[in-house]
């Protein structure tokens, strides 16, 4: 419990320092924090666990941390401070599933954006950010093989991830000459030294039986192939198994996530009626299986177009598919397989990564790295949002949106902080915010 509190405090200090301090002061702040919280500051899960437990307690540790896959990565490299956040999330707040599926989040956001004068474009790739007179003034977008310039009134926010932003849309060498050296050095190191996060192999199953017939669980399951009779767990077992699976996902022991979105979906609220999944898709259910699988197994097919990657790629997917699906063959109606190449295509991630930048220690605890990941970039008019500036996951993305809005509106200044003002607190007090919306604010 004490470690959980310490970890939460440490993450607040990391982000507070990142948002408010510069250069030497920021480095001093991080140094001070490392003295105040030596047990968890800049420590991996394996390091903290080794301080607390011996090998004989490994099974208990594993029970505590068995959903590490939600973070991706292993015990030897993942910062410990992220783990209590995950445990707190599940134990104290529980899990959530959007009514009507993830699409309903976008469907709810678009009208709000358009009502305030915004426009949402789909299948429109930003090719580059336009800089003029040392500030970001717009973007060049490609749509239907044509390029269009979109000019902005006050700035450009890139929520496409640090890799997409600084490798593709605004390469470091093309940034305006006023870009400070500390930023070019820091961001250069982030791109070179922080690897992409975990990549996944995904199986999407369409099942031809209803939720009632299959009685599928609403909870998620992580499967680990440990045979405790023959293989006693040690503090390193998880990392070893993961490593073996990464090397050979076809023959290695599978470590996988299994979930049934159709069991979780309570339906979409339409006026006064609940339309349950069962009513929208009678007699059908769906299952998602995901397992960490590195891109390099598929890299040689990366230059081929989706759907035309050839027989060898299809055979590889088929082989993976067969090993995975033996357990529910009787109900399978449709199978779709996704590899890291699929993620590159659909999520626009540079290396097929699922969670943006890897959650390595330097990303949070090295001020020279952390400082570059603040929403307000040191080039006038350029802002970042999304998981790379905060934490992975839906919540990480949402929190980053609030932080970026605060950065644009000038909230990250001492007078505002000392007055205990935050964007959310101010919104709650604002005239014109409907009471229902006010209650929804965190
Ligand atoms: C298979 C899978 C399952 C997951 N499950 C969960 C879960 O259960 N719970 C959870 O909390 N998180 C989950 N995550 C993680 C979660 O999806 C991400 O952490 C979250 O979406 C990050 O939000 P974001 O807005 O920062 O980035 P993204 O959601 O990745 O959004 C970035 C957007 O930028 C777009 N983009 C990229 N380049 C360009 C360009 N040049 N021009 C225009 N647009 C561009 C991309 O197309 C993408 O839409 C999962 C991720 C994966 C891959």
Automatic annotation (TrEMBL):
Entry-linked SUPFAM superfamilies: FAD/NAD(P)-binding domain
UniProt keyword annotations, A-Z: FAD, Flavoprotein, NAD, NADP, Signal
Top-level division of the source organism's lineage: Eukaryota
NAD as UniProt keyword: yes
Family named by the database record: Belongs to the carotenoid/retinoid oxidoreductase family. CrtISO subfamily.
Protein name: Uncharacterized protein
Naturally occurring in which organism (per UniProt): Reticulomyxa filosa
Upper taxonomic lineage: Eukaryota, Sar, Rhizaria, Retaria, Foraminifera
């Amino acid at each position: 419990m004490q470690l959980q509190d310490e970890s939460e405090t440490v993450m607040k200090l990391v982000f507070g320092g990142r948002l408010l301090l510069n250069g030497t002061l920021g480095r001093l702040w991080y140094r001070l924090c490392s003295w105040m919280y030596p047990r968890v500051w800049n420590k991996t899960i394996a390091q903290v666990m080794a301080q607390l437990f011996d090998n004989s307690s490994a099974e208990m540790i594993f029970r505590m941390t068995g959903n590490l896959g939600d973070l991706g990565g292993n015990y030897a490299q993942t910062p410990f401070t992220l783990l209590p956040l995950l445990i707190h999330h599940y134990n104290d707040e529980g899990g959530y599933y959007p009514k009507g599926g993830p699409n309903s989040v976008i469907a709810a956001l678009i009208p709000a954006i358009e009502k305030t004068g915004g426009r949402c474009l789909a299948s429109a790739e930003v090719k580059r950010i336009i800089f003029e007179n040392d500030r970001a003034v717009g973007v060049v977008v490609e749509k239907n093989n044509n390029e269009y310039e979109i000019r902005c009134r006050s700035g450009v926010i890139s929520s496409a991830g640090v890799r997409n932003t600084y490798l593709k849309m605004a390469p470091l060498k093309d940034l305006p000459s006023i870009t400070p050296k500390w930023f070019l050095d820091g961001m250069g190191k982030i791109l070179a030294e922080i690897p992409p996060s975990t990549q996944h192999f995904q199986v999407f199953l369409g099942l031809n039986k209803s939720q009632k017939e299959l009685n599928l669980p609403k909870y998620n399951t992580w499967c680990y192939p440990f045979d405790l009779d023959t293989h006693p767990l040690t503090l390193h077992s998880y990392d070893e198994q993961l490593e073996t699976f990464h090397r050979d996902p076809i023959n290695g022991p599978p470590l996988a996530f299994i979930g049934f979105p159709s069991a979780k979906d309570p339906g979409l609220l339409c006026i006064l009626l609940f339309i349950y999944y069962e009513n929208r898709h009678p007699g059908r259910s769906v299952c998602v299986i995901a397992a960490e699988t590195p891109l390099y197994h598929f890299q040689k097919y990366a230059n081929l177009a989706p759907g035309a990657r050839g027989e060898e790629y299809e055979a590889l997917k088929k082989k993976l598919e067969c090993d995975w699906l033996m357990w529910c063959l009787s109900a399978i109606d449709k199978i779709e397989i996704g590899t890291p190449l699929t993620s590159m295509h659909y999520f626009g991630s540079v290396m097929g990564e699922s969670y943006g930048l890897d959650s390595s220690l330097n990303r949070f605890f090295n001020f020279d790295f952390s400082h570059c990941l603040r929403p307000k970039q040191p080039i006038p008019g350029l802002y970042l949002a999304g998981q790379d500036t905060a934490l992975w996951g839906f919540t990480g993305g949402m929190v980053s949106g609030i932080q970026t809005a605060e950065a644009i509106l000038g909230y990250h200044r001492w007078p505002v902080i000392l007055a205990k003002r935050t964007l959310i607190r101010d919104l709650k007090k604002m005239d014109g915010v409907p009471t229902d919306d006010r209650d929804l604010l965190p």
